[in-house]
Amino acid sequence: MMEINKFKLFSRTLVLIVFLMLTERCPAQSNKVSDSNGDKKEGLHTDGGAWGFKVSDQTSNADSTYILLIGDSILHGYGDMVKYSLANDAVVDFWMTGKHLNSEGLIEELQDYVSRRNYAVIHFNIGLHGWQQGRIPEGKYVPLLERYVQTIKNYAPQAKLIWASITPVTAQGVAELNKEINPTIVKRNALADEVMKRNNVVVNDLYSVVVNRLDLARLDRFHWNASGYQLMKNQIIKYIKDEIKY
Questions:
Q1: Are strands 91-96 and 52-54 parallel, antiparallel or unpaired?
Q2: What are 1-45's pLDDT values in tens digits?
Q3: Where are the domains of the chain?
Q4: CATH fold of 31-245, please?
């Protein structure tokens, strides 16, 4: 009987050790339902349209240049502006997502969407849905972003990549930077810059484009008016055209 009890204790200990090792290697994915409910409370929403992959309605042919824009509701603000501005140069698809770097199913969707076409340029951002406490474990932002970038490189090796920095977060109803949330945005943009540098990814600093134009913010903390998105569009067009020229 004593030998059986010792074996049970050993087995339970072994299972616990394996569980802890797997947990350390693979950070737990956040629950999609709770994330969505939390986003609604925070005011993070699609801002019109819907989340998902959107194939361009532009006419294409064998010689078409394809561009993919990846982002959240901020993409919804500038996406059509970019598409129409590039109408003579490229066909533009969108992937608008409310996922963050530790969201369940993110990498699988990323693999699918970036390989849908032979994209010449992929302009991507992810960030506004990931600042909340507990969504991205301490110390995991960089490895998760590295995994994200490597996934694009692996599944769209022909594409030139442009990282769009996370845009500023304002105070509610006041044209000032949010003292609680924005420091996290600044920190993560700085970390992202290092990741992009290591991976030879061009950085489009959208944060700097609007941080001194808070008068163009909608003051719901996250979104911008048409003039704000116009400023972002102008810089996005410049970066994409620079990449297409090569």
A1: antiparallel
A2: 445 444 444 455 443 343 334 334 444 444 454 565 555 545 555
A3: 31-245
A4: Rossmann fold (3.40.50)
Identify whether the C-beta of residue 110 lies closer than 8 Å to the C-beta of residue 155.
yes
Compute the distance between CA of residue 210 and CA of residue 196 in angstroms, rounded to an integer: 21
Question: What Å distances lie between residue 158 and 60, 111, 245, CA to CA?
Answer: 19, 14, 15
Question: How far apart, in whole angstroms, are the C-alpha atoms of residue 185 and residue 190?
Answer: 9
The CA radius of gyration of the chain, in Å to the nearest whole number, is 21
Closest Cα partner for 170 from 181, 160, 159, 162?
A: 181
**pTM for the model:** 0.82
Q: Are strands 174-177 and 52-54 parallel, antiparallel or unpaired?
A: unpaired
C-alpha 171/C-alpha 175 separation (Å) is 7
| Contacts by residues 151-154 (CB-CB < 8 Å, ≥ 24 positions apart) | 151/107, 151/110, 151/111, 151/114, 152/110, 152/114, 152/122, 152/124, 153/199
Please state, in angstroms and rounded to a whole number, the distance separating the CA atoms of residues 94 and 54.
Answer: 5
What span, in angstroms and rounded, lies between the C-alpha atoms of 50 and 29? Answer: 23
Per-residue burial over 41-51, b = 16 or more CB atoms within 10 Å of its CB, e = otherwise: eeebbebeeeb
User: Which tens digit of pLDDT belongs to each residue from 203-212?
Assistant: 999 999 999 9
Residue-wise pLDDT for 127-182, tens only, equals 888 877 778 999 999 999 999 999 999 999 999 999 999 999 999 999 999 999 99
Measured at the CA of 119, the angle between CA 75 and CA 65, to 5 degrees, comes to 95
